[in-house]
Amino acid sequence: MRALRLTLAYDGTDFQGWQVQPGRPTVQGLVMAAAASLATASRMAPDRLARGLNALLPEAIRVLAISEAPPGFDARRWALGKRYLYLIDRGAVAHPLLRRHAWHPRYPLDAQAMSGALRLLRGKHDFSAFCAAQGRGRTPTCTIRSARLVSRGERLAVLLSADSFLHHMVRNIVGSLVEVGRGARSASWMAELLAARDRTRSGPTAPGHGLILLRVLYGRDVR
Length: 223
Description:
Layout: E1 2-10, H1 27-31, E2 37-40, H2 46-56, E3 61-68, E4 81-89, H3 111-119, E5 123-126, E6 141-152, E7 155-162, H4 169-181, H5 189-196, E8 211-217
Antiparallel strand pairs: 1-2, 1-3, 4-7, 4-8, 5-6, 6-7
Helix pairs in contact: 3-4
């Protein structure tokens, strides 16, 4: 049996998330392979397999590449971390071409204040204050390795890399950052939230359509 690693890209707008749900269209269900990996006895070349899968999948889901993986490879369990981007449109008027992929909060945002607040999240912390109720069955401790805000004109991109993420953690962090950006809270409030470990004290959950999973991170032996 060969272990194969699938590199996927998808627009999740028309799906009910990644994970299989009975009676609902999900990315995992359509790809038919949990965590983007599969084992097969076929000797078919990876590029031919990719073309065959893409012929069967909707256009919103694409297999970008298939590569040989080490024996026993499991895309979820072997992951060392993830990198997310959250896109914010802070223009006076929401840009129609970004309406499916960026949050437009409808008020001015101070990027410098948001950047200062974001820096306070770097490192190993208990992120209970940013965890949705559905995700409280696991350890709330995560290590954020990189947290930065990129500003380009009327667009803001929140970039977060961590060894793991809690349920809705990125969206809850962004919701709190926007509270800082609009002047409702100071940047130091983020540190107070970490210490309090209380989800009810943090900001609202940012809408899902601005969230992008950029990459799942693996070790050198998996490329």
